[in-house]
Amino acid sequence: MTENQRARIDFPATIGVWWASDTWAITDVQDVAREIEALGYGSLFIPEVTGKECLTQSAAFLAATERLVVGTGIANIHARAASAAESGARTLTALHPGRFVLGLGVSHAPLVEHGFGGTYAKPLATMRTYLEKMAAVPEQIEPGAGRPARLLAALGPKMIELSGTHADGAHPYLVMPEQSRKTREILGPDKWIVSEQAVVVGGDDAEQMSAAHGHLNVYSGLPNYRNSWLRQGFDESDLVRGGSDRLARGLVGMGSVDEAAATLQAHLDAGADHVVVQVLGDDPTADPRPALRTLASALGLG
């Protein structure tokens, strides 16, 4: 792949899904993945916190579907050696060309130190070293498969720059469309941007706000996100636990289903190539399908 050639990702649609399924039996989640594909969504991105291992899950979702792109959003670099991440991703790429995306992230100090027993220091340097080790894996590992598409969980300008020089683009999370625009300005036209957007489907305004604040509760205590929101124009008064109403409305698509759908299009209009929607429920692993069915109709998928 030449320097200016875009890594291959065969998204069948510009809108995908972001969903955490750690508490589900894998065979049941395969059924969910099949329905997500049948509804017309183009991808399923999955997180990795301290629950299930994301490369194993990705293999199961790829095997259960035909066209759906499966991505890690994100694979925690503290959970496995760089050589294991690279070789595992190459195997998935060899089996399912164009359908696997390796999203990588440095995670957060509390999760790394307490969840994985690791050390969280100098995130940018840690990520750069990790990517360099991945690049050093010899070509004889899955010969002919090529390097898997890599995206970085990039919020700050330096990590965004790294996602362009050492990876194939960025996977912004909990950002407004304007941040997708700024990410595109930094990366230029030849790198991928896959932005996440949370939405609430159904309920009145009070119920939707409650879901949004519940979603932001954990994130509002993490410095990486707090700093990201300050860069996006919010201030300290917005960073209360669970976020202010202004923060919630800025980061979560609410209102009618058409208004929620419009927030996804806004990222595409701002320069994102693909948007993954996270529908908020009673908890992060709640069944997303009822809301996804409603949203698919509003988006004209299928």
TrEMBL record:
Tell me a Gene Ontology molecular-function term this record carries.
Answer: oxidoreductase activity, acting on paired donors, with incorporation or reduction of molecular oxygen
Kindly give the Gene3D superfamilies that the UniProt entry links to this protein.
Answer: Luciferase-like domain
Residue ranges annotated for the Luciferase-like domain, each copy included = 25-237
One Pfam short name: Bac_luciferase
Q: Which residues cross the membrane?
A: none
> What superkingdom does the record give?
Bacteria
Q: InterPro entries annotated for this entry?
A: F420-G6PD/mer (IPR050564), Lucif-like_OxRdatse_MSMEG_4141 (IPR019922), Luciferase-like_dom (IPR011251), Luciferase-like_sf (IPR036661)
Alphabetical list of NCBIfam families matching this protein: F420_MSMEG_4141 (TIGR03620)
Recorded protein name is LLM class F420-dependent oxidoreductase
